[in-house]
Design brief:
The protein is α+β, with helices and mostly antiparallel strands. It contains 11 helices and 7 strands. The chain is 67% helix and 14% strand. A hairpin with a 6-residue loop joins strand 5 and strand 6 (205-218). The longest helix is centred in the middle third of the chain and has 45 residues, at 257-301. 29% of the residues are buried.
């Protein structure tokens, strides 16, 4: 009996793995074309060496592989079970005394393996690829300063924001720069065009030769006073380190789950300290209000409350009310928690998808792989929409990060259990 089940496990596992590979290649090339070819085209247009373009693509692959695995598990399991069902092999297994649970075992085991692989790609190789991507991009940037500015874009650097029009080779048209002067005054610079070049005298800088320049400076020390100037040409420098920082600043998505967990712990501690400081301030404000109230009571007993005491009482109440109603939140902490849960929910969706796919695939009858593929694509789109919706709810409406990132999986699990009950009650 054990040997017979082993043969069944191998046969079904091989069928599932083959369908998974086909589905994985499909999703891989969709994400590859959507994300990486656009990046490569943009870089190739700036005359970047082809080997460097290939390396940039390689460093970006972990993110694509990690997201392709769950959807490939869904479509692959639907195709495999649908094929076995359409060829009456499921009926043959049952007639041979093979229970459905033994047919389900290889699907479950392989889906767990796919989940672990997707998690490792997302948790280790994606941050590693991001770091190497940033290093290589910095190296390319030093030899190709045209990459510092993209057409029709808004780039924010440490001390400046640059808005660009069309970019042709090394010339930018209709450029607007918002920055601050050495005296911390706000400045706006407009130019009809700019020529990009690497600053040979000072390494690590991109020079913009601005043409037909108009500049306006707002003196912070003198209200409503502005200084205007015009020039036929002007040299404006950008630090390449600032460019690279603005392009590749690491986020929680590009860190390992352990690093994100440590970041969350540190931010939680800081938030608790801020809340404790707020509570201490509320206590002091309450004491000030009590003192102002007592002063007003004493004046009432002696004949009347002065305007100064009334103003002091109102001011103390407003300060206490604002302190109590002003929430102490850390938006970045919530984002980090959402990304932390996402690092687990998306890879382990492989398990939930297989639980859903098994009873659905058995119900396809003679439809086979093609209908399984179509149903898998439909569910993939719905799952992706739920994932995006959950993330938006977590960001904007302060929903629980756990619920925001895991409710698509729980919906898939609920549907899978429903179809299980519906199928095996017959």
């Amino acid at each position: 009996m054990g040997r017979r089940f082993n043969a069944v496990y191998i046969y079904i596992g091989r069928e599932f793995f083959f369908s998974f590979v086909v589905s994985f290649l499909f999703f891989f090339f969709i994400f590859f074309i959507n994300q990486l070819l656009l990046l490569a085209e943009d870089i190739l247009s700036k005359h970047v060496a082809f080997p460097n373009v290939v390396l940039l693509i390689v460093y970006s692959l972990p993110a694509i592989v990690a997201i392709s695995f769950p959807f490939a598990s869904l479509v692959g399991s639907l195709m495999a079970v649908g094929r076995l069902s359409s060829d009456n092999e499921m009926l043959a297994f049952q007639a041979s005394g093979v229970p459905n649970r033994h047919i389900f075992v290889p699907l479950l085991v392989l889906s767990l393996a796919f989940s672990m692989f997707s998690f490792v790609m997302n948790d280790y190789f994606l941050p590693l690829g991001t770091i190497n991507f940033g290093k290589l991009y910095t190296k390319i940037l030093y030899t190709n300063p045209q990459l510092a500015l993209s057409p029709f874009s808004v780039k924010r650097y440490q001390n400046a924001t640059i808005i660009t029009g069309a970019v042709r080779q090394n010339e930018v048209s209709n450029i607007v720069i918002f920055d601050t002067t050495e005296t911390k005054d706000k400045r706006v610079i407009l130019a009809s065009s700019a020529v990009i070049s690497q600053n040979s005298a000072e390494g690590g800088k991109v020079s913009l030769k601005l043409n037909k320049v108009f500049s306006e400076t707002n003196d912070l020390k003198k209200t409503n006073q502005f200084t205007y100037s015009t020039a036929s040409t002007m040299i404006y420098n950008i630090l390449l380190s600032d460019v690279n920082l603005s392009l590749r600043a690491p986020t929680a998505r590009e860190m390992s789950s352990l690093d994100v967990y440590r970041l969350i712990q540190a931010k939680t501690k800081q938030l608790d300290q801020r809340k404790a400081a707020r509570n201490e301030k509320i206590g002091l404000d309450a004491f000030d209000l009590q003192s102002a109230y007592q002063s007003a009571v004493d004046e009432i007993r002696t004949g009347g409350v002065s305007q100064a005491t009334t103003e002091q009482l109102n001011r103390a109440y407003d300060v206490l009310h604002n302190a109590r109603t002003q929430p102490i939140v850390d938006r970045s902490l919530r984002i980090d928690k959402i990304e932390f849960n996402r690092k687990f929910s998306v890879p382990f969706a492989c398990l939930f998808f297989v639980i859903f796919a098994f009873p659905v695939g058995l119900s396809m009858g003679r439809s086979g792989r093609s209908v399984g593929f179509g149903v898998g694509l439909l569910v993939s789109v719905l799952y992706w929409g739920m994932l995006v919706a959950g993330q938006s709810l977590g960001y904007r409406l302060d929903y629980s990060p756990v619920v925001s990132m895991w409710f698509p999986n729980f919906i898939i699990l609920g549907l899978g259990l429903f179809f299980f009950i519906l199928r095996f009650r017959r």
